[in-house]
Amino acid sequence: MKLYHHPLSGHAHRARLFVSLLGLPHELVEIDLKSGAHKQPAFLALNGFGQVPVLDDDGTLVSDSNAILVYLAKKNARTDWLPEDAAGAAAVQRWLSVAAGEIAYGPAAARLVTVFGAKFNPEEVIGRAHTILGKLEAHLANRDWVASDRPTIADVALYSYLARAPEGNVDLSGYPRVNAFLGRIEALPGFVPFVKTAAGLAAA
Ligand SMILES: N[C@@H](CCC(=O)N[C@@H](CS)C(=O)NCC(=O)O)C(=O)O
To answer: How much of the chain, in percent, has pLDDT values that exceed 90?
Structure first.
């Protein structure tokens, strides 16, 4: 199994983290985003969107980080990480949507500004980050994991960009439950950290 990734991509880290939590043998293939390798024909043949991550499971190609999480849970019959009952699956999907929505346009976008020089309005994306952080902090009031009483792929999907939110000048100090949640993920067997960059609040 090959995972095409870039070490500074939170979407790619999300996929890598789950591969590692499942203990699956894999090869990491780094795509040089800086030189534009992801827009070259060889990579576009793997993912026409020209984005990492992409999983190649013995010829089965899966693009999109959340799709990779779903694929790996299903392929390995890990119903503990992705429940099959209607309510359980919906609870996970709700937070996968948050990862692809509010997280992508909030903390991930704020970090794109400081780490990759993206032209988003910092005030707007940092504001969005605090809105979803406030909601997550409230959601975690009486639970350890977002979608179940044990970790699921929804928790994995949220981790990377929340953990590195300070790199985008998003201060996590006002969210003790979110910080404890991140710590619980980091304590899972097989956890692999997301590379840190000295950007934003993390530069201090
Ligand atoms: N929906 C995709 C988004 C992936 C994504 O945005 N990847 C970024 C790196 S974090 C990328 O490859 N960007 C290059 C581009 O879009 O040109 C996923 O969840 O995998």
So the answer is: 99
Q: What is the pLDDT of residue 173?
A: 98
For the record, the structure tokens of 4 come out as 């095409």
Tell me the per-residue pLDDT of 116-150, one tens digit each, with 9 for 90 and over.
Answer: 999 999 999 999 999 999 999 999 999 999 999 99
DSSP for residue 107: I
In this structure, are residues 77 and 50 in contact, taking their beta carbons and an 8 Å threshold?
A: no
- What mean pLDDT value characterizes the chain? 97
Strand partners of residue 19: none
Domains of the chain from N-terminus onward: 2-75 (3.40.30.10), 86-191 (1.20.1050.10)
Using a 6 Å CB cutoff, which residues line ligand 1? 9-11, 33, 38, 50-53, 64-66
CA of 12 to the centre of ligand 1 (A): 8
E strand intervals along 99-200: none
Return the closest-CA partner of residue 158 out of 55, 49, 172, 169. Answer: 172
Atom of ligand 1 nearest to the CA of 8: 10
Q: Residue 143 Cα, ligand 1 centroid: separation in angstroms? A: 30
User: In 3-state terms, the chain is what percent helix, strand and coil (to 5)?
Assistant: 55, 10, 35
